[in-house]
Specification:
Elements lengths: L2 E2 L13 E2 L9 H8 L2 H8 L3 E2 L9 H13 L4 H10 L1 H6 L4 E2 L18 H18 L9 H16 L3 H27 L8 H15 L17 E4 L7 E4 L9
Parallel strand pairs: 1-3
Antiparallel strand pairs: 2-4, 5-6
Helix pairs in contact: 6-7, 6-8, 6-9, 7-8, 8-9
């Protein structure tokens, strides 16, 4: 079975990403192995397995080949190798990543127990997550907005239930404003910490916040869950349940 050739992914949010070369040991066995493999030749050998037009865009050949190699090298299941890939910078470097990030590889459809992802809920949850990260690191925020944000979320839900959509949208906009203020304040604080080691966890949260603040209805690879960012929302086409949230559960071979 052929898959469509992978598309070039847009480089976004790089200001908040950490280069893998800055956090890995260059003498690690996987780093050395990655440098000895002729990845270009491997991609050329497998390129004919991909179609120019048919099917959904596939993942990068190096990513899929690298995951298969790691899977058999460490005798792991599909699910476990994906889980370790998300957490392990050496796995990501071996598979061709430039930055350390959580990646949704290739999935079977598996429904996730996640509530309907309204913008208001996502803004509120992201705000709480950023405030918690700031508190844990001793970052003094001028205002956390947690109380007023909770009020705005309650009002938004009430207005939406009553079909008062203009008022509902106004509350959603307030929540987005609160999130934006906290996000920018933490970004300014991080910009002043240039001499400090990279805080990968905080940078990932900031990248998620920026993605949430900038995404629109037409955006691809939207963020639907704060605690499970790998989740996608796909259309089912059924009247009683039009959408289902899914998460990564398996690696599928590109060939």
């Amino acid at each position: 079975m052929q898959k469509m050739k992978p598309k070039k992914e847009q480089k976004t949010l790089e200001i908040f990403k950490v280069r893998l070369t800055e956090i890995i040991n260059p003498t690690h066995p996987l780093v050395k192995l990655a440098e000895t493999i002729n990845w270009k030749n491997l991609e050329e050998q497998l390129a004919h397995r991909y179609s120019e037009k048919m099917g959904a865009p596939g993942k990068e050949i190096r990513l899929m080949a690298g995951l298969q190699y790691l899977k058999y090298m460490y005798n792991e299941s599909d699910e476990m190798i994906v889980q370790k890939f998300v957490e392990n910078p050496y796995y990501q470097y071996f598979c061709g990543n430039e930055y350390f990030e959580q990646v949704n590889v290739d999935t079977t459809v598996q429904e996730k127990a996640i509530s309907y992802p309204t913008d208001a809920k996502l803004y509120y949850k992201m705000l709480k997550a950023l405030v918690a990260e700031a508190k844990e690191r001793g970052i003094a925020l001028r205002q956390s907005y947690k109380f007023v944000a909770k009020q705005a979320l309650t009002k938004q839900a009430g207005y939406a239930h009553a079909r008062q959509m203009n008022r509902s949208r106004k509350m959603t906009k307030k929540l987005k404003t609160y999130l934006g203020r906290v996000y920018r304040e933490i970004v300014r604080h991080q910009a002043e910490q240039k001499d400090q080691p990279a805080d990968v966890q905080l940078l990932n949260k900031l990248a998620m916040a920026e993605k949430l603040l900038t995404q629109s209805k037409e955006s691809k690879q939207k963020l639907y869950s704060i605690h499970a960012p790998e989740v996608e929302c796909i259309s089912k086409g059924k009247a009683h349940k039009r959408y289902v949230r899914r998460g990564g559960s398996a690696v599928k071979s590109a060939w």
